[in-house]
Amino acid sequence: MSIIDWKQRGVARYEPSDHAALESFQRAHFGADSIQLSPDHFHWLFEEPPEREHEGPQLWLCKRNGAVVGQQGGIPFALKVGERNRRASWAIDLMVAPEWRLRGVGPALSETHSGSSDLAVSLSMTEAAYKSYKRAGWLDLGNVPTYLRVIDPLRCLRVSPYGGGLAKLVAKVGKPALTSASLGYGLSARLLGAKLVEIDSFDYRVDELWEAAAPQHPVIARRDWAFLNWRFDTTPQSDRFRRFYIMRGETLLAYVVLRVDHWKGEPVGVVCDYLARPGWLMASFSLMTELARREGMVALMCRTLNAQAARPLSMMGFLCLKNGLHAPTRMMVRPALDQLDLAGPAGDPKNWFVTVADSDMGFRGLGE
């Protein structure tokens, strides 16, 4: 029996008969109020993804003497790499009971998960998970930056997690200049014929947008109607999201998903997801910035990895926080042993398009 076989003894997919043991484990290690214990969230996350597998939910458990001592979850998704679609999975919720750490449980769980797809990807993992993946040979892609557009410097000064440093920096420019820039870019977008339309739910038009926008991104998770409907319209948290189309006549130029969180009592707009046709990203974000200003938000924030977004966002006054607001948002990938050709394109962070809609990054708000 090989070392890997020995490590993987006791690791198997979740079965309904595991419910009680899993609930006990999650209550003890995630907390009694954790989202993992919500039945609606569990059903949506593991049983309803568009790319769900016939073998069952992507949730693997390690049991010893009938008790769960570790778990590894996954969210299956379709990944466009170049012109090909590959089977991929977001690695989420790796947790091992403290007394079973450094005893092969974590590696066995992550190896089982990563071997189920062409490529495993982890975003915003805990320090313990990061160390475990690092030891297992995952490729470290660095951090997903956070872009912050301060709208009201004085109010941001009171709530900035950097002791007001960011707000003071932007205050040197001044609110009038920021407001003028926002109005200027918004006016330019409207002169080009773009307008912001709030919608109740996504529809078939996003499939055409996906086909037009996807080729500009070398590595991107599929964002078609099926995915957006699952991710934002049918989630138990659907009422937290506002959905916008950027339209020019009858043509859908882009979509943006916004969530309004509260940080120390002040409203902050969080761009959870977006996708734009080539050349329309700046217009989309300028219209969203103008909306945030009109509605009294103190800032607009977007966590995204997108090489094509850096310059347009900088021109509009967004600050790039490479280490995020609170802690770095790390990203790691692991190609399957028979898919090592993915290490090149998927191992370069400049190729990736990532937002809060990917993995489980957007499940919690700023103040949670």
Structure, explained:
The protein is of the alpha+beta class and 368 residues long. The protein folds into 2 domains: 3-143 and 331-355, Gcn5-related N-acetyltransferase (GNAT) (Aminopeptidase); 146-321, Aminopeptidase, CATH 3.40.630. The protein has 13 helices and 16 strands. It has helices at residues 3-8, 19-29, 39-47, 105-114, 127-135, 153-159, 165-171, 175-191, 205-213, 225-233, 281-294, 310-315, 343-346, and strands at residues 11-13, 59-64, 67-81, 84-96, 119-123, 139-143, 146-150, 195-199, 219-221, 242-248, 251-263, 266-276, 299-303, 319-321, 330-335, 352-353. Helix 6 (153-159) packs antiparallel against helix 7 (165-171).
Q: Give me the CATH superfamily of the largest domain.
A: Gcn5-related N-acetyltransferase (GNAT)
Shape: globular
Query: In the CATH hierarchy, what is the architecture of the largest domain at level 2?
Result: 3-Layer(aba) Sandwich
Low-confidence sequence ranges: none
Count of distinct strands = 16
SS content category: alpha+beta
Radius of gyration: 21 Å
Biggest sheet record: 9 strands, mixed
Order of helices and strands: HEHHEEEHEHEEHHHEHEHEEEHEHEEHE
* Broad CATH class of the largest domain: Alpha Beta
Number of domains: 2
Oligomer: single chain
Report the mean per-residue pLDDT as an integer: 88
**Cα-to-Cα separation, first versus last residue:** 45 Å
- SS field, number of helical segments: 13
Work out the strand percent.
25-35%
The name CATH uses for the topology of the largest domain is Aminopeptidase
What helical percentage do the residues reach? 25-40%
Organism: Azospirillum thiophilum
InterPro entries: Acyl_CoA_acyltransferase (IPR016181)
Protein name: N-acetyltransferase domain-containing protein
